[in-house]
Specification:
Layout: E1 2-7, H1 15-29, E2 33-38, H2 63-73, H3 78-89, E3 92-98, H4 106-115, E4 143-149, H5 166-169, H6 171-179, E5 184-185, E6 189-191, H7 199-214
Helix pairs in contact: 1-7
GO cellular component, one term: cytosol
GO molecular function, one term: NAD(P)H dehydrogenase (quinone) activity
Organism: Amycolatopsis acidiphila
Length: 259
C-alpha cells in the first residue's frame, strides 16, 4: 500500500512523536511505501486567504467558489497542490494528532481547510446529477485512520463518561471530513492518559499501533450510511423506518451497528 502520514504535534520527542516513528518503521517493515506531511516541521500555514487562489486584492473572496475555480484552472498555491498530489498518490491516510479541546490542533484543521477545496474534497456531482459526498467522491476507495493521543482516561470517554463516546467526539473528522469526501474511515487508534504514560504504556501503545497498521488494508470501515444509498430522503433526513424512534449520531450507522 501507499500511505500518507499526516503528523500534527509540535514536539517530536513526545509520546505522539515516538509513536509516529514506530508507525513509520512498521510501514517499512511491512513493505509499504509512505510519504509524510509533518505539519509543524513544514511550518504549514493553516490560514485560508486569497493568496491560496491567486486572487487579486480588492475582489470579494467567496472561498468555495474561488477555490473551485483555482483548482480547475491550476491556480492553487504550490503548497496546497503538493498536499493534494500526496493524497491522490496514497491508498490510505494516517492522520495523527493530540486531541486538544475536543478536536485536532489548529494547524491540522487548517490543513484540511486549505487542502480539501471545492472540486477536490467536495462539490462534485455524478453523471446522473447526484451530489457525491458521504461515501462517494474523488477520494472514494481510500482508507483513513485517525491516530490520536488523549490526556483523559478511557473511562471518561465511555457511554456515560463526561466526555462522551470517543467516536462521537471525533464525528466531525470521521464522518464530516473522511466519509464526506468519499474515504472509508476506520475506527480510530486512541492512546488515553498520554501525558502520564511511561515506558510500559508506550510499549503497549506501540504494539497496538503495529497491529492496526498490519490490518490497515483489511479492517472493516465504520459502517456509516451513504448519502445516496437510499437511507435518506430528499432533505437528507434519515427515513422514519430506520433507527425508528431514536435520535443522535448513532442513527447514521448502518444496520450492522445501529438498526
Amino acid at each position: 500500500m501507499k500511505i500518507l502520514w499526516i503528523y500534527a504535534h509540535p514536539e517530536p520527542r513526545s509520546l505522539t512523536g515516538s509513536l509516529r516513528d514506530e508507525g513509520l518503521r512498521t510501514l517499512t517493515e511491512l513493505g509499504h511505501e509512505y510519504r509524510q506531511s509533518d505539519l509543524y516541521a513544514m511550518r504549514w500555514n493553516p490560514v485560508v486567504d486569497r493568496a491560496d487562489y491567486a486572487q487579486d486584492a480588492g475582489e470579494r473572496l467567496l472561498v468555495a467558489a474561488e477555490s473551485a475555480v483555482a483548482y480547475e484552472s491550476g491556480r492553487l498555491s504550490p503548497d496546497i497542490r503538493a498536499e493534494q498530489e500526496k493524497i491522490e498518490w496514497a491508498d490510505a491516510l494516517v492522520v495523527q494528532f493530540p486531541l486538544w479541546w475536543y478536536g485536532p490542533p489548529a494547524i491540522l484543521k487548517g490543513w484540511i481547510d486549505r487542502v480539501f477545496v471545492k472540486g477536490f474534497g467536495y462539490g462534485l456531482t455524478g453523471e446522473d446529477g447526484r451530489v457525491l459526498r458521504y461515501g462517494e467522491g474523488k477520494l472514494g476507495g481510500k482508507r483513513a485512520l485517525a491516530a490520536v493521543t488523549v490526556g483523559g482516561r478511557s473511562s471518561t470517554f465511555g457511554p456515560r463518561g463526561v466526555n462522551g463516546p470517543f467516536e462521537q467526539v471525533l464525528f466531525p473528522l470521521l464522518h464530516g471530513t473522511f466519509f464526506y469526501t468519499g474515504m472509508s474511515p476506520l475506527l480510530p487508534f486512541v492512546v488515553h492518559s498520554a501525558d502520564r504514560a511511561g515506558a510500559p504504556e508506550f510499549e503497549a501503545a506501540a504494539k497496538e499501533l503495529r497491529a492496526r497498521l498490519e490490518t490497515l488494508a483489511t479492517t472493516e470501515p465504520i459502517p456509516f450510511r451513504t448519502q445516496n444509498g437510499g437511507d435518506y430522503d430528499v432533505d437528507l433526513v434519515l427515513k422514519p423506518h430506520l433507527a425508528a424512534g431514536r435520535t443522535g449520531l448513532d442513527v447514521h450507522l448502518s444496520a450492522k451497528r445501529s438498526d
